[in-house]
Amino acid sequence: MITPHRLLIALLAVLAMSFGGQAKADLSDTEPGMTFSGSSSGIGPAGATVGWSFSLDSARTVTHLGMYDGDGNPTDYDRQTGIWDSTGTLMGSVVFPAGSTPGDGYILDDYEDGSIKDFRYVALSVTLQAGTYNIGTYYPENHQPGCRFDLQTLTPMDGLTYLGTRYHSGGGWGNPDTESTNDNGYVGPNVRFSIAEPLLGDLDGDGDVDLLDFGAFQANFTGPTGSGMTPGDGDLDGDGDVDLLDFGAFQANFTGPGGGMTVNPEPATLALVGLGGLGLLLRRRRRR
Asked: In this structure, are residues 27 and 122 in contact, taking their beta carbons and an 8 Å threshold?
């Protein structure tokens, strides 16, 4: 039996927890944001950050940022790939150091026959909410490995919309937020996402488990005698009710607003959830 005393002990344990993301070291359980086929090769453009713009229908976790390297050339200069949000904030970036080759620990991916192959990737973990983003790779000098342009086919993953080619108008490393007349290029950067799975406890479907979801959880609370409930109602252990066992699963998956693997919920927020669980317990006791 779960007593108020035990629930308070569990609350103290939760307050000591922190939530953090770990970069994924391989490409398993990930998918590319875009696949490409049919293009001319290129080296430049020198001294510029080029790439493309896209939008996401829902929150997704980035696992890798990549750079095209179809010929396996060592980098003569540092290359950098990054993603910016619609306000120009850099959400995450990776560096491919000068002199590095695909064999230097970078992850290579070969797409299906007939498409552009060989992006080298570096792992990171960043959660992007639904919205518009720019991705770009910086080419400091006119040297290999270069980008591709004049693409014939661009195929976005489900939930991602390609919005066209972009470049950084100021030159150098920066947000590629200027639209290019070359609609089907440049392919320097790419991004990989974790394969989307429903986030257990995200009852309102906005990509996080926060106090809004807890409000829905409370409203659907049945106790162990309930039936007919679903995971979308808060039945997180699949036994048909919404009770304190489900609350334990909800608490374990709590991310706070923004969700994903990079969020650190504030202690005060976690305390509210824990006290809410205590309220559920007391509510159950009064019903007896």
From this structure: no
Task: State whether 265 and 136 are in the same domain.
Answer: no
- Which of 176, 194, 212 delimits the end of a domain? 194
Contact of 101 with 153, CB cutoff 8 Å: no
CA dihedral for 183, 184, 188, 191, sign (positive or negative): positive
Q: Tell me the whole-structure pTM to 2 decimals.
A: 0.62
| CATH number for the domain that contains residue 68 | 2.60.120.820
Tell me, what's the pLDDT at 239?
92
Query: Residue 115, Cβ neighbours under 10 Å: how many?
Result: 15
Containing domain of residue 124, as a range? 30-194
The residue with tokens 């000591």 is 16
Considering Cα of 256, then 261, then 266, then 272, what sign does the dihedral take? positive
Residue 254: closest CA among 215, 198, 200: 200
Backbone phi and psi for residue 269, each to the nearest 5 degrees, phi listed first: -65, -45
Q: Which residue has the higher pLDDT, 43 or 8?
A: 43
Count structural domains, the chain: 2
